[in-house]
Amino acid sequence: MKAIYSGRGTPGGALPGITGFDWDEGNTAKSSQRHAVTQAEAEQVFFNRPLVVGDDPEHSATERRYFALGRTDEGRKLTDVFTFRGSLLRVISARAMSRRERRVYARAQEG
Predict the structure, then answer these.
(1) Are 89 and 21 in contact (CB under 8 A)?
(2) R_g of the chain computed on alpha carbons
(3) What sign for the dihedral angle of Cα 40, 4, 16, 51?
(4) Domains of the chain, residue spans
């Protein structure tokens, strides 16, 4: 898991040019039903700091995908898998961080 951005700066520092979110009903339902993550929580990850963003080459066969490690307004630590649709960010899935992801995120909080 290699981060391409890790920081506490503004959202534009991590994702310049992003103007909003593009939601697919199927992805929203999957994150909600399987992982108990709401659409609002998945979006909050991108506005709270620290935020860790990296490439997800294992899941990039049909389109380039990325991961984001972050927290919700309530402090819940989540992993979002996402891609871009022009200037919009499309969350493909959102779930609680794994143990390994929590360690990576903890290092970002320290630095």
Answers:
(1) yes
(2) 13
(3) positive
(4) 19-110
- Two tokens, residue 101: 């992801």
Instruction: For residue 96, list its beta bridge partners.
Output: 78
Burial of 54 (0-12, 13-18, 19+ CB in 10 A): middle
Which tokens hold the place of 14? 């991590």
Pairing of strands 20-21, 88-96: parallel
For 23, phi then psi, to 5°, come to -105, 135
State both tokens at 81: 């898998």
Q: pTM of the entire structure?
A: 0.83
Strands of the sheet containing 66-71, edge to edge, are 3-7, 51-55, 66-71, 77-85, 88-96, 20-21
> 86: left (phi > 0), else alpha (psi -120 to 50), else beta?
left
What's the CATH class of domain 19-110?
alpha beta
Q: For the segment 26-77, what is each residue's pLDDT rounded down to a tens digit?
A: 777 777 888 899 999 999 999 988 899 988 878 778 889 999 999 999 999 9
